[in-house]
Amino acid sequence: xxxxxxxxxxxxxxxxxxxxxxxxxxxxxxxxxxxxxxxxxxxxxxxxxxxxxxxxxxxxxxxxxxxxxxxxxxxxxxxxxxxxxxxxxxxxxxxxxxxxxxxxxxxxxxxxxxxxxxxxxxxxxxxxxxxxxxxxxxxxxxxxxxxxxxxxxxxxxxxxxxxxxxxxxxxxxxxxxxxxxxxxxxxxxxxxxxxxxxxxxxxxxxxxxxxxxxxxxxxxxxxxxxxxxxxxxxxxxxxxxxxxxxxxxxxxxxxxxxxxxxxxxxxxxxxxxxxxxxxxxxxxxxxxxxxxxxxxxxxxxxxxxxxxxxxxxxxxxxxxxxxxxxxxxxxxxxxxxxxxxxxxxxxxxxxxxxxxxxxxxxxxxxxxxxxxxxxxxxxxxxxxxxxxxxxxxxxxxxxxxxxxxxxxxxxxxxxxxxxxxxxxxxxxxxxxxxxxxxxxxxxxxxxxxxxxxxxxxxxxxxxxxxxxxxxxxxxxxxxxxxxxxxxxxxxxxxxxxxxxxxxxxxxxxxxxxxxxxxxxxxxxxxxxxxxxxxxxxxxxxxxxxxxxxxxxxxxxxxxxxxxxxxxxxxxxxxxxxxxxxxxxxxxxxxxxxxxxxxxxxxxxxxxxxxxxxxxxxxxxxxxxxxxxxxxxxxxxxxxxxxxxxxxxxxxxxxxxx
Length: 657
Prior knowledge:
Elements: E1 5-6, H1 15-21, H2 32-37, E2 40-41, H3 47-71, H4 73-85, H5 88-93, H6 97-120, H7 123-131, H8 143-157, H9 165-179, H10 193-199, H11 207-220, H12 226-229, H13 237-248, H14 258-266, H15 268-281, H16 293-300, E3 302-303, E4 318-319, H17 321-331, H18 335-347, H19 349-356, H20 362-373, H21 380-394, H22 397-402, E5 407-409, E6 421-423, H23 424-443, H24 446-460, H25 468-493, H26 503-534, H27 539-547, H28 562-579, H29 588-600, H30 624-638
Parallel strand pairs: 1-2, 3-4
Antiparallel strand pairs: 5-6
Helix pairs in contact: 1-3, 4-6, 4-8, 6-9, 8-9, 8-11, 9-15, 11-15, 11-16, 11-17, 17-20, 18-19, 18-21, 20-21, 20-23, 21-24, 23-24, 23-25, 24-26, 25-26, 25-27, 26-28, 27-29
């Protein structure tokens, strides 16, 4: 390889690589390493070339896997990298581009080798490859732990400038590759030697700074320097391969749009840092034997702009909440950013308080609503996490009040109807109603509609001046589901003697009946809650209820609905009597005026009191069962690192979660 430019087709014939993977030991201070690491390569320009790269490396890596126990050359390469890593900070400050270039060439080779080992052999055997005796005194007792520590220190200590950008990306990617052992092993992370070295090893003393650095990388959204995507003469393999990697692979998860793919490609370090942060904080979360310092750091960091003198019980770091909030608002259209927002809202109480105090909360809410609106194009997990964020926000009464005081104009992505002006609260209700309808007809996920209804229930006491279209859609949802309930009940009545072969059919019908009754009951309770507290503020809702009052007739005598329908009947009877007039064909405007006038004289004590509707989000007792496969699916599809499907057992890579 040397200093000459190589092509992908030359790799398996390259004498330096053949020497490296052979049986002959190479000492860490051998001049060979300078020759091996002083190379450039024409980057892959197509999927075919990228596949060819893997094919070209395959026989070399197979040979290394066999010979490393004898030669120890992999350990020697790691030792060479570790020696150089110690000098990186000084070389970056001195603008020593050549030294930095050779160092991340070494790191790129290490990552390729480690990825192959992890995909091909068990974790114990991966660790043994690090432990294979190498020629010469390396002065590194535990190469794996030393490597991890060096990678963390690169991210924490090495200045981030144009010529170190690729090195930072490679350090993050290499840690991701090491942690990817979870995709190929049934052993829990708490018992993984690699995870233990990261969570409990020497590098864990940097947990606060490392977590802060990863989060800062995400917040800053630094664009890649031109050299990262456009390899020049004398450039490195990592620059070249990154070009092919980020131009060829499909970025985004769940059919992201071109604009989003472009942004991800321009901010590689930010995206990779976010993925690594999510991996770190979601493993070993419930194991008492292992403390996860990265999780604690993320859940307890405070606002650097807060002048208050509060003292945290857990030592943490400071970060500008305002900049983090702004970044979340403009990047909140993929799984990984939504998941970060969920973690912060659920577990970092200081950040949650900050978000709820924002006067521009619409900048955060509208992107979440667009995710829900685009549900057919999103993964079920992405929809679910977005809804959980809405539910967490709806637990706050001030939020529920504020959203109805914020006016939005021209919501272009809402295409069912032109919305020239609507309150944020109205749009929120509208999109959640649409999500319930989508779920009931397509996904049929009980947890999804439960969380939708819980959010609406939390907000119902504060519904105010709802848009006519919102009210129509709300009543229309009830009407649609009531028709479906009637149909299911007819099917059950018409099949009194179901045969044993129809057991599944019978079970499905009974499940449908139970779910429909539950949803309809909750919708009635939400309407009741609104009427009990905000009747005078919702003439459009009263109009829609009066216009469709016959929809509620079948529920008056139904034992599961009778009590909650009673209040609705009282309201409808009162306003109907006020609308009775010898004059026929009242206009909509005249009816609305009559409703508003009658509302002024409404006796508030006429309705039966029900307990306030209050729901809180509670995480599952074993959250890792949900989050670990989800996070690694995101990493697999969005990191740009081409993992083989061979031996992958954590999830089905051909199926969206």
